[in-house]
């Protein structure tokens, strides 16, 4: 039991306060008495009315420092393992459940937020996500960050008994498993099959799922373009897997004209979650060994980074004509891509392809833009440990990193949810139009 929690039942003083509170809110005295009677009868009521915080589930991450009776809760984010390439214990992702909250005024303080990977750019203007049903996620607008104390405060008066709070809407293994199995059973109008295979196993024994749509890209089908889409190299960037869910839904489950035309000329290899271990553990940026997957592509070590090792080997077998590596950016409130500038092979053909793709993406999705993003790499200065740079260099193809916000999208704000699973999915469905427009020019 955590410090500050009551060891036995609800105190008489607290129940009296609850009765008075209910009466003042217009509830009948009868309801108040019911609460008092239940509280005296068994310890079950303790679990219903005593505040408790849990994170011992898929993608959970929080440590409880203290829980006050009045709803004053102090918390800490648990850091990722040490990451050698980044020289950091990353942290920013949190996900926890608070029970016994109905009618209470919660003030949750994440007291080590100042030590997060992106303290200023990440927390400024950020609003925590919350959900009662684990489907619809809304924002807590009273979230504030104090630069002096390094504390992130989330104030909320919940409407139900139990609430989940998270850095962004979680994407669980159960959701992943249900979705990929639904895909493999889909009968496609176009007649193209769907294969669900494992690229290999993670350090903790989880499969790295690969979905292949439209063929196997083996020598008999070389006339088709080979498209690779991967997401969640950084496990805390869950919007990436929602993006891929939206893309695959349009491609496989509801194939419209765009999807069917694409599949007549392309094979899709899709890895919805590159880092299932980090996802389950509630990490921000690393796998179980503390490896930042997106800093390992120049020479992945299978003993510490099987996720990249197996994926890269499969890419060498299939070839790559286009790659999209999907991410979320903690600071920037925009959707944008990071391109191939700075790779040794950078040339006018790649530059032209990149701008054609971006123009088509903007036509298809008004939330995507090219004004804001990362600075371009100087000639020859690209970091070839990054996936998109390494693949662009190795395969001489268009290869991009896509970033979505954790906050709202400044171009088209939506105050209730801000950036959300729904909008990530819509962007994933929309990108197919941009790929279709670019497809005929991907090869020389
Ligand atoms: Zn990322």
TrEMBL record:
Active-site annotation = 403 (proton donor/acceptor)
Q: Which GO terms describe its molecular function?
A: metallocarboxypeptidase activity; zinc ion binding
Q: Give the GO terms filed under biological process for this record.
A: proteolysis
Pfam families reported in the protein's UniProt record: Pepdidase_M14_N, Peptidase_M14
Under the heading SUPFAM superfamilies, the entry gives: Zn-dependent exopeptidases
Domain (Peptidase M14) ranges: 169-439
What's the cofactor? Answer: Zn(2+)
In Swiss-Prot or TrEMBL terms, this protein is called Peptidase M14 domain-containing protein
**Species annotation:** Chlamydomonas eustigma
